[in-house]
Amino acid sequence: MRVSKLRAEVERARYAYHVLDKELISPEALDSLKKELFDLEQQFPELITPDSPTQRVAGHALAQFRKVRHFSPMLSFNDVFSESDFRAWFERVENYLGRPLTDAEKLQRKSALNQRESAMFYCELKIDGLAIELLYEDGVLVQGSTRGDGRVGEEVTQNLRTVEAIPLRFLPPDEVAKNLKEAGLNPNRYTLTPKRLVVRGEVFLTKREFARINREQEARGGKTYANPRNIAAGSIRQLDPKVTASRRLDSFQYAVVTDVGQRTHDEEHIFLKALGFKTNPWNKLTHSLQEAIAFRDHWGAHREKLPYEIDGAVVILNDNATFAAAGVVGKAPRGAIAYKFSPREATTVVEDIKVQVGRTGALTPVAVLRAIEVGGTTITHATLHNEDEVKRLGIRIGDTVVVSRAGDVIPQVTQVLTHLRTGKEKPFRMPDRCPVDGSRAVKEGAITRCGNPRCAARHRESLRHFAARNAFDIRGLGGKIIDRFLDEGLIGDAADIFTLRAGDIAVLERFGERSAENIVREVEKKKRVTLPRFLFGLGILHVGEETAIVLTHEISKSKFLISKPTDILRVFQKLSIEDLQKIQDIGPKVSESIYNWFRELRNIKLLEKLEKVGVEIATEKLKALRQRRIRLRRKSSKLKGFTFVLTGTLKTMSRDEAKEKIRALGGDISESVSKRTSYVVAGKEPGSKLENAKKLGVSLLNEGSFLKLMQKMRYIGDTLVLPDVSEKE
């Protein structure tokens, strides 16, 4: 009969497309077959059957939904978000069962019939959809219902009939047997034609359909939907099935409630597919905790490639007997867990609001947050952009806020939960003056800037100087990256560099987790620094590398224990300007600059903050320096009384190596040229020091002459005789 043939062909095409992911005929051709079947059934109504493809769309809207009781409770899953919590869940299961379920023991089970039964977990993608229960009698769909409260749901059979992925009738028994055999299962172990079969699954909307529906809503001037799950849930509960049909819902089935001979959860999926149901092809058997973790992490990184939304993985004990023995805790099975991805929205507390100065002088308020994981990244900072945004949010220090991050977007504070206020929250207002140099702040539209145009540039350069090779030597933290961190509000001073978190960096455009971790790892390594590098990195006016070394030599003579930044503060606050001028090569300007720097409140706070974030002085290096000074003094004093200034780039050695040679022979290094300078060594592309030397009549040496000087010095009696190497350039 033509009608039965048409039904079989339409069902064959449906099964191939939805279950096997194959297109046997084009959608247009399939529509033509459905049209012919519909016309024949209209001509001969007595031939219409409940499982006919034409019955997917019922003709009449319902007045209300009937309540139906589930055959067993439809439980929900408890959630975990981290690996440690996931492992803790499994440990609790083992403790409850009173016996270990280790990977090795599961794999060595004597009763395991095959590798499938020895698998520890069955892992499923957790689709963001609506749970349903389907009842089949004699192989035909007779009832479909929503989860409801887990015990009683709403009957939505007419609406579920419109979902093409849900079969209205099982495949013939011989075909079911063939499918089971091809999947590696013995058909004789199962009831292939159960009188009654209850299965459960999920109804969802694909991303493409979600976009299509929202486009149509916009075209009609209607309100767009927030997410696919809302549409799926709303569609299933439409009283008019025609509306449901227009939404083009999809569905996967994942559980067989009826006992048909299955021993594992994996077998249930194979059995469902053999009957003609659509199951998720990405679900997977895993044999260890680590494999289950890898499954979840893989799809956390690749979920954007899926045609539907998922929010994690469901991990289930694969052995049904073990799963049943684990029982239920609350409203969730103990033997399964929803191992979710990190949420894209989370709540946290604003611990402070700081104002950072960017490279253009813009003053940006930044929320300092109690550490929270959002989108897989731990966040501690979020920019508040400007004063207008602070007012719009109505945010206060101490507020509980919602932090959102979608895709690779930088985390944003999107909402303040004012109902959680205690009365201790503090209002925030933008400062009238720049926090860096105290200049008056100027409002330019929505942006507030420091009124001193040079402030931002000097601030930026001071941070670059702090991280430079000759100072703290923080590799990977170049000028452009420092500028970016300034603009994003991640750093406001040098101490903030040591509070950087990988999560705050990784969310920035053009940064990834690896580069963020590399920066944080490098910063952590440089918390311990030598005293000369520390002093030079502070950027004190007139204190260059050599002056920092001179000051270190002076400090090394003292009995002070130097291990923390505030120890240095204590030393220098006890020195007067006169005391500083007694130090070799420290003139009036330099001594005054040093004296003032260590008494300025902003600098005192910086040193205290550097100590608080864990910066230490390498005391063993300081001890070594003391010993080295003694050894050098004993080794040679040939250049004692001679002062050198180096400028430009040397070919055969670095400037540092040249300085070491001079010091090894008892000579001194100076950063600036004066009448007391003995020689200026000029390399390639010398700076202004060369011109100063010429004006003062100081002897000049090129690189070759400098090397000749080092090699051919000799004494006649007690007098040092130098070769004629002076270059009148």
Can you describe what's shown?
- With 729 residues, the protein is of the alpha+beta class.
- The strands form 9 sheets. Strands 14, 15, 16, 18, 19, 21 and 22 form a 7-stranded antiparallel beta sheet that branches. The protein has a 5-stranded mixed beta sheet with strand order 2-13-10-3-9.
- The longest helix is centred in the N-terminal third of the chain and has 17 residues, at 2-18.
Share in β-strands: 15-25%
Q: Low-confidence parts, pLDDT < 50 over ≥5 residues?
A: 58-62, 103-115, 630-635, 715-720
How many domains? The number is 5
Tertiary shape: elongated
Largest sheet: 7 strands, antiparallel
State mean pLDDT (0 to 100 scale): 82
Helicity level, as a percent range?
A: 25-40%
> CATH class of the largest domain, please?
Alpha Beta
For the record, the CATH architecture of the largest domain stands as 2-Layer Sandwich
CATH topology of the largest domain: D-amino Acid Aminotransferase, Chain A, domain 1
Termini separation (Å)?
110 Å
Fourth CATH level, the homologous superfamily of the largest domain:
DNA ligase/mRNA capping enzyme
Number of helices: 27
Structural class: alpha+beta
- Please tally the β strands and state the result: 30
Radius of gyration: 38 Å
Summed up, what is this model?
With 729 residues, the chain is α+β, with helices and mostly antiparallel strands. 38% of the residues lie in helices and 20% in strands. Helix 6 crosses helix 10, helix 14 (453-467) packs across helix 15 and helix 19 packs across helix 24 (619-635).
